[in-house]
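Hi W., the zinc ion complex you wanted:
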Amino acid sequence: MIHTNRLYFDDPTGSPFEAVVVAHALSGDRPSLILDRSGFYPESGGQMADRGLLGGFEVVDVQVDDAGRVHHVLSVSDLPAVGATVRGEPDRRRRRVHQALHTGQHMLSRALVDVAGAETISSRLGETACTIDTPGETLREADLARAEALVNDMVDADVPVRAFFPDAETLATLPLRRAPKVTDDVRVVMVGDFDCSPCGGTHCTGSAQVGFVRITGLERYKGGLRITFNAGPRARQSLFGQQDVLQALARGFTCGPADVPTAVERLRRDLTDTKAAAGRLQERLVEQIAARLLAGAGPAPRFVLSFPGEDATFLRLLGRRLAEVPGTSAILGAPGPEGTRYLVVRGPGADFDCGAFVRRLNAQTGGRGGGRAESAEGSMPVAPEDWAALVDGLAP
Ligand SMILES: [Zn+2]
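Structure:
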């Protein structure tokens, strides 16, 4: 059986290559192409598969089987013929992102050992986020800050990154950070003399190519801690995006980016004050409305009223006030752009069943809500043209 010659071991940058189709096979249940040699990285070791073009067709997945054959899954089912020579063009931009993330992960794993004795038990370079898992919960925010600073010092030092297959004798002398997962053909990646670990992935060729590493999260995970980080072009894009947001906010506040937190805090305080003032005004308004309604009402009055644009608080304040009147019943609606809220209340001695009425209203209008005989509320997705007519059609 053919063992695919992996071109990315020597050329991590994803250069175009030519290869011969040696077989058609299956990767899971998808038809796949096996080549004599490939520059496409198959998903493994926590690194995602490459994308790109093969024979002019889109490569949608790359996997490796137990025999060491790399399976290329294409966007078409009509695969290039066995024996044909095809040109492969890995997506170098995507590869570059993975190189930086992977090298950054090695360096961060090393730094976590150096500053806090925290081993990496697993790592993952995901489509949107990269994580390192460590056992126990001993790592502190300060440790992470020191680890991040150490990694970025190593990035700035621009030390060479070397990937090679040492012979058994040499391998035995290397200070590997962790034991290899394979016994034969162990590939070793060295970041200067900072870190030395077994790995089959694609890395940068110098630490400066990582750009920088930024830790973005720390959370408990399976009895240990999970660190989320970003590096290289993806981190740059993310930070640029955040900077754009911050600048837009600063423009909105007419202040500098550094003053945005103060401006937001001021806005929050203003909002609290304004809400309190609006609440006081609403209470006074409700009091005036209630006084006017009750002034013109006879004994045991019945109110059917619509207050366009008002909120639930308004309805409750007014309902509470009207329910103080013996024998009263009040069916209050507040139509708005997203539907109509309603509140139904009764005063002492009234026998109107508010809950039953709201259930009838809900059934008629597709509304939700409920309550007791004394008081009930709900909302319907529409704003009726004539609230009084709707209510009269339902009331007993
Ligand atoms: Zn690696």
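The longest strand covers residues 17-27.

W.
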